[in-house]
């Protein structure tokens, strides 16, 4: 009888230990911090603190963002950005705070920091029409400051481990380099005269390579890099070019495809040449194209017009941001696009979940859950 009880308690102790170590492993696999770089697709409010024409700090932006009670936060959508959702799903304790926000101090930064800026791009000239914006070079300069702050908070050894093993570096950038630079009417004419598409894409890739090397030197190791979506199919391009709902602007999509091909090569190059780093490529082009073409399959009623701005000004509405005077659809969750440029929260949820758990069609060489588990 004593032996039976001994065996029982031994088994119980083993199960407790397995459970304990399993829980520790699960905690270790969670995302501790997310450092986000890019443009308005993931800006969480940095542009609120800039004198810029690129802002989303007025209603109805943020109308479905529960954390703010439906008040605008500076996010260019009705709810969460794709980076917000990725962080939530991977166990990040709280949203990465905008770098320029006054409360982005002390231990707050240990959950991550968002450096993204509406209008920002890879090239420093991109987005100049907005007057102010944070380009990638400036965003990385700001991360360098954050990196030193983390050293002070944790000590250099623990900070290094925190950044290299427990943090995710998300970069969604490139669209503005085409939309608000190379393809911009009038403003871009000088650029297009001096650079053909090949030369312009070369310039982007060469700048981006240097920027990613800089992040690596600052001990970033787990990267997810988004390619550029089907720019010719977003409502803005369809409206200003007076296209039918099913048509897209060929030049914009060709430029995006050309850049994406070069970006794929760059990611492979970095994975081969930067020891200890893993660069994951998010195929946002195909993901968004799938939503646009097969929107009915995902429960949407339209992928050709944004929810905010429908019926307000015809062609002119294509370049007016979402503001309090814009018309607003009543079924926001059934629109792929929130406004003429940015996906709705409903679309962002679908995109994020594919990046977290999807296969190599949409994210490679591994998905984000596998990347965090490394």
Question: How would you explain this protein's 3D organization?
Answer:
Keywords: Hydrolase, Lipid degradation, Lipid metabolism, Secreted, Signal. Belongs to the 'GDSL' lipolytic enzyme family. GO terms for molecular function: hydrolase activity, acting on ester bonds. One of its GO terms (cellular component) is extracellular region. InterPro entries: GDSL, GDSL_esterase/lipase, SGNH_hydro_sf, SGNH_plant_lipase-like. It contains twelve helices and seven strands. The chain is of the alpha/beta class and 374 residues long. The chain has a single domain (33-373), classed as 3-Layer(aba) Sandwich (Rossmann fold), CATH 3.40.50.1110. Strands 2-3-1-4-5-6-7 form a seven-stranded mixed sheet. Helix 2 (82-89) packs across helix 11, helix 3 (136-154) packs parallel to helix 7 and helix 7 (197-217) packs parallel to helix 9. The longest helix is centred in the N-terminal third of the chain and has 28 residues, at 2-29. The chain is globular and about 55 Å long.
């Amino acid at each position: 009888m004593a032996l039976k009880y001994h065996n029982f308690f031994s088994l119980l102790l083993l199960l407790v230990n397995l459970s304990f170590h399993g829980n520790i492993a699960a905690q270790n696999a969670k995302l501790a911090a997310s450092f986000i770089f890019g443009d308005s697709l993931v800006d969480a409010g940095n542009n609120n603190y800039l004198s810029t024409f690129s802002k989303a700090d007025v209603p109805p932006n943020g109308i479905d963002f529960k954390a703010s009670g439906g008040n605008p936060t500076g996010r260019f959508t009705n709810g969460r950005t794709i980076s917000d959702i990725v962080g939530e799903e991977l166990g990040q304790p709280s949203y990465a705070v905008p770098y320029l926000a006054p409360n982005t101090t002390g231990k707050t930064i240990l959950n991550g920091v968002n450096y993204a800026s509406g209008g920002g791009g890879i090239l420093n000239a991109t987005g100049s029409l907005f007057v102010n914006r944070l380009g990638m070079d400036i965003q990385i300069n700001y991360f360098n400051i954050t990196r030193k702050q983390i050293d002070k908070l944790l000590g250099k050894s623990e900070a290094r481990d925190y950044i290299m093993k427990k943090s995710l570096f998300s970069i969604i950038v490139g669209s503005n380099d085409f939309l608000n630079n190379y393809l911009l009417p009038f403003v871009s004419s000088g650029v297009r005269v001096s650079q053909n598409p090949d030369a312009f894409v070369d310039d982007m890739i060469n700048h981006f390579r240097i920027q990613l090397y800089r992040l690596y030197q600052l001990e970033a190791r787990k990267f997810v890099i988004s390619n550029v979506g089907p720019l010719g199919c977003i409502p803005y391009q369809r409206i200003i070019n007076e296209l039918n709902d099913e048509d897209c602007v060929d030049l914009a999509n060709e430029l995006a495809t050309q850049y994406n091909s070069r970006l794929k090569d760059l990611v492979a190059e970095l994975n081969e040449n930067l020891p200890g780093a893993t660069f994951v490529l998010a195929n946002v082009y195909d993901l968004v194209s799938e939503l646009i073409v097969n929107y009915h399959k995902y429960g949407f009623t339209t992928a050709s017009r944004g929810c905010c701005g429908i019926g307000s000004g015809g062609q002119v509405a294509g370049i007016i941001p979402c503001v309090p005077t814009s018309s607003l659809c009543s079924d926001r969750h059934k629109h792929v696009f929130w406004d003429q440029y940015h996906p709705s929260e409903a679309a962002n949820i679908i995109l994020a979940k594919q990046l977290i758990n999807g296969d190599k069609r949409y994210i490679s060489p591994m998905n984000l859950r596998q990347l965090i588990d490394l």
